[in-house]
Amino acid sequence: MTTLTSPTQPAQRTAPAPAGRRRPLQRVTWSSRLVVNLVLVLFSLYTLLPLSWLVIAATKDSQNLFGSPGFTFGQLNLLENLTELFTWEHGTYLHWLGNTALYAGLGSVTSVAVSFLAGHAFDKFDFPGKERWFSFVLLGVLLPGAVTTMPLYLMASSIGLVNTFWGVFLPGLASPFGVYLARMFCKSYVPKELVEAARIDGAGELRIFFAVAAPLMKPGIVTLLLMTFSAIWNNFFLPLVMLSDSSLFPVALGIYSWNSRVSADPEFAHLVVTGSLVAIIPVIGLFLGLQRFWKGGLGAGALK
Amino acid sequence: MGPATQRVAGPAGPPPEPKGAIMALTQASGTRTEPRRPSRKGTLTALLFLAPFFVLFFAFTVFPVLYSCYLSLFKDKAAGLGLGAVQKVFVGGENYLRALTDPAYTSSFGNIAVYCLIYIPVMIVLSLSIALLLDSAAAKARGFFRLAFYLPNIVPGLIAAVIWLYLYTPEISPIVDAVKASGGTWDLSSTLAAYFSISNITVWMHTGYNVILFYAALQAVPKEVLEAATVDGAGPFRTAVAIKARMIAGAVSVATLFTVVGAMQLFAEPLLLKTKATAITSTWTPNMFIYDAAFDKHDFGYAAASALTFAVLIGVMSWAVTKLGSKADQ
């Protein structure tokens, strides 16, 4: 982002420095050690307690959810809650999970491939008006979703894509921010000389991209994959507008629809709570499994 | 087979290999003498690599924006007594004028401004402080803390809002219990409560992510600079504030830019919270206003005009943040 914000900052690193290295510069007194770690513990309580509340709340039945103190376990009802969650309205929740996997999973894989192809072209090829096109893409980063969502709905309705899988899937694929980051990753992970050497050896451009550049950019690809996955997962506006058939809902929209029925029927409250917990577990698993990739890549992408 | 024989074989066969090599050589030498002339074949391949993105980008971003511009100049008028077919009538700038003088629209900007003024400084200052603490020599268990701080960012926004909605609900929430046990009262219906309850959700969601970003930036601060500061007698606090924080000003201003752009588009959280925080109306933020105009009132021209005005405002705001950021960076 330095191109946009801080031209003075030198692009100093090609890869992020190893995280977590110690700097034993000053002698640390026990009192400052206590204060620093206490503040860090307090802040981690702030980030973790709501999630642990969710775990505890998901084990309670309706009565205990409303009746017992938040951080104590009531009668253990987790299995019943899960059974109810997955069998509710003929297993609609399972459909939502599947839909989310398709929208966010397949969507992010496609989107990242598209972004890296474009990023590679912007970094490794020369063509007329290159930087102008790139600035044009960057403008797209700032564009609020609200501007495109309504016309997208009208366009989709005129060609019969409203209330279909494609109406939600396709608009999420073009990510200007993805192209921007992909270009930065291409620049820092793949030396130009390497690509040119491969060209001299007679490799085709597609082969250079897949066999030479892509393996080098693995951390960047994983980082962007996770970011795009979150972005599609988090886009609530588009499915809310596009979909009315609940069997096509992503899980967040489904939980929203259940939640709007809570005031009429409090029974829905623990479906919402259990559903929220089950929805975030796979994502947390995914992030934990891939953290050695994104921890490095995240910093690199943000700094350049 | 040498290159010479192939060159003779020339145009008849498939594209001969040396041609590619020669091109690569000219390109390689081109890097030394800027600006180089792009070759035609290079442009064609670039086009192939760029095509998937630009086809999608034009279809799902550029075209919708242009379509919005077009829509914003029209108004739907029902013929006759409102029973006939709906007709599009060209009204020029009327929708824009109407939006800018609509109290519901302008007050949605007021709300988002107050929200940004609470949320952004709190979140950025908190992230920076936590990152500096995490980077200080006194910090333990950095791996655990980073993970703990990052977790809320993985939770999708709507589910985060649902969790907090429940944590704001009297019969369910341990927080409300604690407040009541210490003699306080719990009331989410005031305007101030609306701002704070929403800011808390977004601070919870985004602080950890920015801590990780700033922490990564701090790892790049040259060791020599910090050693020099220590030699000059600067304590850890002074080093953190006067040197480290200043060295990562670039990362902070980028994060602030993205935070501003994201914060102005607040939508899901107030939509969900408005049942509890009753000061929140259905047009409380610009995005909610646009959604309401388009999908509740079906006034598409008006929604398009307000969405475009909003986009321009976001553009101006990001320009201002960028300017301020580069000033702070110098």
Automatic annotation (TrEMBL), chain A:
Topological category with respect to the lipid bilayer: Multi-pass membrane protein
Transmembrane segments: 34-56, 101-121, 133-153, 165-185, 268-290
Occurrences of domain ABC transmembrane type-1 (ranges): 97-289
Main subcellular location: membrane
Source organism: Arthrobacter horti
Stated name of the protein: Carbohydrate ABC transporter permease
InterPro entries reported for this sequence: MetI-like, MetI-like_sf
A Pfam family annotated for this UniProt entry: BPD_transp_1
